[in-house]
Design goal:
- The complex is a heterodimer of chains A (227) and B (614).
- Chain A has 227 residues and is an alpha+beta fold.
- Chain A is 22% helix and 33% strand.
- Chain A folds into two domains: 106 residues, 2-Layer Sandwich (Alpha-Beta Plaits), CATH 3.30.70; 112 residues, Alpha-Beta Plaits.
- Chain A has five helices and eleven strands; from the N terminus they run E-H-E-E-H-E-H-E-H-E-E-E-E-H-E-E.
- In chain A, the strands form two sheets. In chain A, strands 1, 2, 3, 4, 5, 8, 9, 10 and 11 form a nine-stranded mixed β-sheet that branches. A two-stranded antiparallel sheet of chain A has the order 6-7.
- The two termini of chain A are 15 Å apart.
- By secondary structure, chain B is of the alpha/beta class.
- Chain B is 36% helix and 14% strand.
- A six-stranded mixed β-sheet of chain B has the order 2-1-3-4-5-6, with helices on one face.
- The chains are: A alpha+beta (227), B alpha/beta (614).
- Chains A and B meet through helix 1 of A and helix 9 of B.
């Protein structure tokens, strides 16, 4: 049985690397006595594949992994069993069965939603700053990826910018491309917001809100869009 | 403080997970409800310190079994240190994020001589006066323990107390007394602590020297302060506390696995080995106890590997049945068993093969020396035939890489002994090519030998850095261009300093302090080791380092560490030294009768052997 899980990794875990997160999940699977499948060979490992890398410094509301099991289990049992051994700040939201030929998360997830929490600025002021930004023909930032410090235009990869007021803060939700047409990193997004006039000390939190499979103008979560 | 760290500091440092705590199975006790509050400060980075078994035991023991509290702190990497200092934040504990200065006891684990500069640096980062004499009534009691504390004298100025021997025996008693004397003046508390067996309070003694600079004696300054400090020993090792729920870090550790301590001590009697003498006698756990502990640890941690730890795990009498059981119990869920350095014989390799069914680990053997003559001198009781049988068995059963450990700069070493190392490596390679289907890779770790206190070679001179360098060149030349054999050497200057401190006395303390003031820290890390700064510090303190390393000592010379009673007699050590000159072996007292080292008779204890010896 192959399954896909959606989980939330809270702010306490934002400094974990992708590898740290994977080891933590493997150890939790062992503690929970989940009937995970092992690879063949001298160095057997759990057939677990993590979704798109959650960068160090970010926490994630809806992250994903795929896992192979040796027998069928009920989703409710799986979620309860795993949550009972996971640290308090990480939680499995849902698990569904997927087809054994379902393409890997890394191949299908092509968009992500990032949320920046801003304090000490009014919603209207923020909206104004972002409206000015949107009018620009290009969104130029210095690349933070492999080609460091090369000018990079983020505009083709930014699908949506929304501003939402909360009790004591404002949230900027950005839906952006992963991979094609341009790979957008969260630190580049932050640079873009800073260039629009938002001040670093007012940015109190950043997290990844969603991972999407974008087909034309429709956004599906990895749990919705399966074969 | 925690908020400031997470927002302003941790995003800027490498590996921030080192500094956040909150791992699975962390124990956070109530600050106000706990009696004595202690922080265990490990003078190296998180991933090194968290691999240390002794710290795991003490952490669980104090927090689970006593009313005291024990939190953790590690040496911050220099990037983190710079940020903490620039923001004027003190070094803190990982459980409650309290500054080290808020604890009543700050305890350092001394695993390595050169980690002393990190101890001093950590105290300074916490605003604790680094010298014992400068600490006021309200300053924490700063203590140290671990293998290096068996010669505490070079560090006498920095610690209020040393705990000698097995920590789980003495620490609870020490903390009880700290709590009971809480409202007394500091001087009186220290005096009371001096009466606990195994506790050494350096400020209560005066060191005297002869005119020629040799050590004369250590004189207690107060009545009731013992002239000799007897180490503490866990007697019922099988029933001794061992943590069932180890902390599971988020980041990768050096030793990232569940650990079983199958035995403590070693009876092999290798003459170079410090641990083999100071941790006598041998004590084992029952196979049934170990299986229970394995189950508890795996259940609570989810680790993918269990390591069987001790000074020589293949000598554990129940090793075969333990490994078999563990592989049976956990092999099917992909949980492997790992053996640290193997004994040099075919039995070991057969056992390694059992383990390999689950997970392939590196095959590591330690012949230590290249000729039979030299192995007799150091009492490493293995023969070349045993080694060749072992590697043959290994290559036959599919290994195609072997790592061998050697030492050089050993007492009475001749050119033929160095040549023997290379000849042996070539022999191993030839054997490999005969039995393995693929080309074989041979690696040799060749360590600089440093004579240590409390060993038969405590009388012997150490090689100088120049001698080591010449011998290194000789070895490289003898090896030739063969790329399938790789030789790894250590920095001979590090070993030189290690040697100075290992057999040093109190007069070194001001030089150590200077070295830290000149910027020395992380001296065990090549990228931070500053030999010139150390030389400057020694010279400025008018210390001749060669006095400590480059001379043979007379039979009757009094040593600054003689007052530490390890249970093994000086007479035994001298007899062993004489046997070394004669190239004569001393056999394992388990099989071949008592060698009268003194530990069992002196301490009224005996070896704990659990299974029939094979």
């Amino acid at each position: 049985m192959k399954v896909r899980c959606e989980y939330c990794a809270g702010p306490e875990l934002k400094f974990l690397s992708n590898l740290d997160m994977m080891h933590m999940m493997e150890r939790a699977l062992r503690r929970a006595e989940i009937p995970y499948a092992l690879s063949e060979g001298f160095n057997p490992h759990i057939k677990l594949s993590m979704g798109t890398v959650l960068p160090v410094g970010l926490w994630g509301k809806n992250e994903y992994f795929d896992l192979e099991l040796t027998k069928n289990v009920a989703p409710e049992w799986f979620v309860m069993q795993l949550n009972s051994v996971l640290p308090a700040y990480i939680k499995i939201n849902r698990m569904i069965e997927i087809d054994s030929k379902e393409p890997a998360l890394m191949k299908t997830v092509n968009a992500a939603g990032y949320s920046f929490v801003v304090k000490g600025v009014s919603q209207s002021e923020l909206q104004q700053q972002l409206d000015n930004l949107i009018k620009m023909p290009v969104f130029l930032v210095k690349s933070r990826g492999k080609k460091k410090d090369v000018d990079k235009d983020l505009k083709p990869g930014i699908y949506k910018i929304e501003v939402k007021g909360q009790e004591d803060s404002v949230i900027i939700n950005l839906t952006v491309a992963i991979g094609e047409p341009v790979n957008i990193r969260f630190d580049e997004l932050k640079d873009l917001l800073l260039s629009a006039g938002i001040r670093e000390e007012n940015l109190t939190d950043v997290y990844r809100k969603a991972n999407y499979i974008k087909i034309e103008e429709n956004y599906f979560t990895p749990l919705e869009k399966v074969v | 403080m925690k908020d400031k760290l997470i927002r302003e500091i941790l995003p800027l440092v490498a590996k921030p997970v080192r500094y956040t705590g909150n791992e699975l199975n962390m124990i956070k006790k109530s600050w106000s409800d706990s009696k004595c509050r202690m922080v265990l400060a490990f003078p190296d980075v998180y991933e090194v310190g968290m691999s240390h078994v002794g710290s795991k035991i003490l952490y669980g023991l104090i927090n689970e079994k006593t009313d005291h509290l024990l939190e953790r702190s590690f040496a911050p990497w220099p990037d983190m240190e710079a940020l903490l200092r620039s923001k004027q934040l003190p070094l803190y504990s990982l459980e409650s994020f309290k500054p080290l200065g808020d604890f009543e006891v700050v305890g350092f684990s001394l695993q390595y001589e050169l980690s002393i500069t990190n101890c001093i640096n950590m105290m300074d980062m916490a605003g604790i006066p680094v010298c014992s004499k400068d600490r006021g009534e309200n300053a924490p009691i700063v203590i140290a323990g671990g293998p290096v504390a068996f010669n505490p004298e070079p560090f006498a100025d920095f610690f209020d107390a040393f705990l000698i021997g097995d920590g789980e025996e003495v620490l609870p008693e020490f903390l009880d007394l700290c709590f009971a004397t809480r409202n007394q003046p500091r001087a009186e508390r220290l005096l009371a602590m001096a009466k606990i067996t195994g506790v050494y309070i350096p400020a209560l003694y005066q060191a005297k020297y002869l005119e020629n600079g040799f050590f004369k004696e250590l004189v207690p300054l107060n009545a009731g302060v013992p002239a000799r400090i007897r180490k503490r020993v866990v007697t019922d090792f099988d029933q001794a506390y061992f943590p069932a729920k180890p902390i599971v870090p988020y980041m990768n550790l050096i030793h990232d696995r569940a650990v079983l301590e199958v035995m403590r001590g070693c009876q092999r009697g290798c003459r170079f080995c410090h641990a083999g003498i100071v941790y006598r006698p041998v004590r084992e756990k029952k196979v049934s106890t170990l299986r229970r502990q394995a189950e508890e640890q795996i259940k609570s941690s989810g680790y993918e590997e269990v390591s069987l730890s001790s000074l020589s795990s293949l000598d554990y009498s129940g090793i075969k049945s333990l490994v078999k059981k563990l592989v049976e119990d956990y092999g099917s869920c992909g949980i492997g068993v790992s053996l640290p350095s193997l004994r040099v014989d075919a039995f070991s390799v057969d056992l390694a093969n059992e383990v390999q069914k689950v997970r392939k680990t590196t095959l590591t053997l330690a012949p230590e020396a290249g000729t039979q003559r030299m192995r007799n001198i150091i009492n490493k009781n293995i023969t070349e035939e045993q080694l060749m049988e072992a590697v043959q068995a290994a290559f036959k059963s599919g290994w195609n890489a072997v790592k061998l450990y050697f030492m050089f700069g050993l007492p009475y070493e001749k050119e033929e002994d160095l040549g023997g190392i290379i000849r042996m490596l070539k022999e191993v390679k030839a054997t490999g090519n005969r039995y393995s289907r693929r080309p074989v890779g041979i690696k040799a770790g060749i360590a600089n030998y440093v004579p240590k206190a409390h060993t038969p070679f405590q009388w012997h001179r150490q090689n100088s850095p120049e001698e080591f360098e010449n011998k290194r060149q000789f070895l490289l030349k003898a090896k030739g261009k063969d790329k399938s054999i790789k030789l790894d050497f250590h920095d001979s200057r590090t070993s030189y300093l290690e040697g100075v401190i290992a057999r040093g006395d109190r007069r070194l303390a001001p030089a150590i302090l200077k070295a830290w003031q000149y910027g020395c820290k992380f001296d065990g890390w090549t990228e931070y080791f500053q030999f010139d700064k150390w030389c400057e510090a020694l010279a400025d303190s008018k210390i001749d380092p060669e006095f400590y390393t480059l001379r043979d000592r007379e039979k009757n010379e009094v040593f600054p560490w003689d007052f530490i009673d390890i249970g093994v007699s000086r007479d035994f050590l001298w007899r062993e030294y004489e046997m070394a000159v004669q190239e004569k072996a001393t056999f394992d007292c388990r099989q071949d009768g008592c060698n009268d080292c003194g530990i069992c008779s002196e301490f009224g204890i005996s070896m704990e052997i659990e299974e029939d010896v094979q």
